[in-house]
C-alpha cells in the first residue's frame, strides 16, 4: 500500500500532491463500501479515535464519527462546553488526559489558528485538523476536490471560482491549496472588504463582479457569510450582500453555459444561494456531504497506516 508522507493531516499546504491523489483514490474505494448493504469494514478495528471539538459543528463532526464507525474504530466524543477546559485546564493537558486512556488518533476542531500544529508537536498521536479558526479545513477541501473529480473525471484544467466570505473562511484557503496542487485554475470573488490583502500572492485570479466569475468558471464553490467570526460590519446588510453576490436561478439562466454549484454548508438560503439553485440539478451539495464520509474514511485509514 502507498503511504502518506506525513502522520498528521494539519492542512493542505504542508502535504504533497501525491498525498492528495492517494487520499482521493482511497476515498473512491471507500465510497463503494458505504454504498453496499453492509457499510462497515474492519480496517481500524484496533484503533481508538477521539473527536475533540472546541467549536460547534454538526456536519463535520457527524461525518467524522460516521467515517470512524464505518471503519470499525472505537470512538470517543469530547465537547469543550462541558469539560475541564471550562475550569482552566490547558489544551495539552486535556488531550494528554484523553491519550492516557490509550487513544491513538485525535480529530480536533479549534477556534485558534495553528492549534492542531501545536498539538502535533506536544502529544503522541495522529492529529487530524477538522478546522482551525480562519486558517484551514483540509478534509473539506479534499471532499470538494473529490466531488469535482467525480463530476468531471479530473480536476486538472478545471476553472473553479470560490465566491463569498474569503476573509473568514478556512474552506477557501484549503481549497486554493488543494485545487492548485491538482492543476485547477482558481478565482476568488466577493466584496473587496471580504478578500484578504494577501490573496493575490497565492496565485489566484481576483474578481469583484459575481456575473463575470460565474461566466468564467466550470464550478462555483459558494461560501457562507461567517457572521459569527466578524467583529465589525464588512458590508451594509445581508439583503445588500444577497443583491450583489447572491446566486439565483435568474443569474444562472443568463450564462451561456451550465456550471456546477457547490457549498460546504450550512447554507444561508436566500443570502448566498437561493433555494431554487441549492435544490437544482446544477448543485452537487448533497453529493459533497456523502463524499465527505468516504474522504474522511480514507484520511483516517491512511494515517493509521502512517502511525509509526
TrEMBL record:
Record GO biological process: 'de novo' pyrimidine nucleobase biosynthetic process; 'de novo' UMP biosynthetic process; amino acid metabolic process
Specify the Aspartate/ornithine carbamoyltransferase Asp/Orn-binding domain's residue ranges: 157-303
EC number(s)?
A: 2.1.3.2
GO molecular-function annotation terms?
Answer: amino acid binding; aspartate carbamoyltransferase activity
Identify the residues that bind L-aspartate: 87, 170, 224
Name of the top EC class for this enzyme:
transferase
The UniProt record lists the keyword DNA-binding: no
Q: Which reaction does it catalyse?
A: carbamoyl phosphate + L-aspartate = N-carbamoyl-L-aspartate + phosphate + H(+)
Q: Which pathway? A: Pyrimidine metabolism; UMP biosynthesis via de novo pathway; (S)-dihydroorotate from bicarbonate: step 2/3
Output the InterPro entries linked to this UniProt entry: Asp/Orn_carbamoyltranf_P-bd (IPR006132), Asp/Orn_carbamoylTrfase (IPR006130), Asp/Orn_carbamoylTrfase_sf (IPR036901), Asp_carbamoyltransf (IPR002082), Asp_carbamoyltransf_Asp/Orn-bd (IPR006131)
- The residues that the entry says bind carbamoyl phosphate are 59-60, 109, 137, 140, 265-266
**A Pfam family recorded for this sequence:** OTCace
Q: Which keywords describe this protein according to UniProt?
A: Pyrimidine biosynthesis, Transferase
Role summary: Catalyzes the condensation of carbamoyl phosphate and aspartate to form carbamoyl aspartate and inorganic phosphate, the committed step in the de novo pyrimidine nucleotide biosynthesis pathway.
Q: Which protein family is it in?
A: Belongs to the aspartate/ornithine carbamoyltransferase superfamily. ATCase family.
Show the HAMAP family listed in the entry: Asp_carb_tr
Please give the subunit comment from the record.
Answer: Heterododecamer (2C3:3R2) of six catalytic PyrB chains organized as two trimers (C3), and six regulatory PyrI chains organized as three dimers (R2).
Q: What is this protein called?
A: Aspartate carbamoyltransferase
Q: Which organism is it from?
A: Algoriphagus iocasae
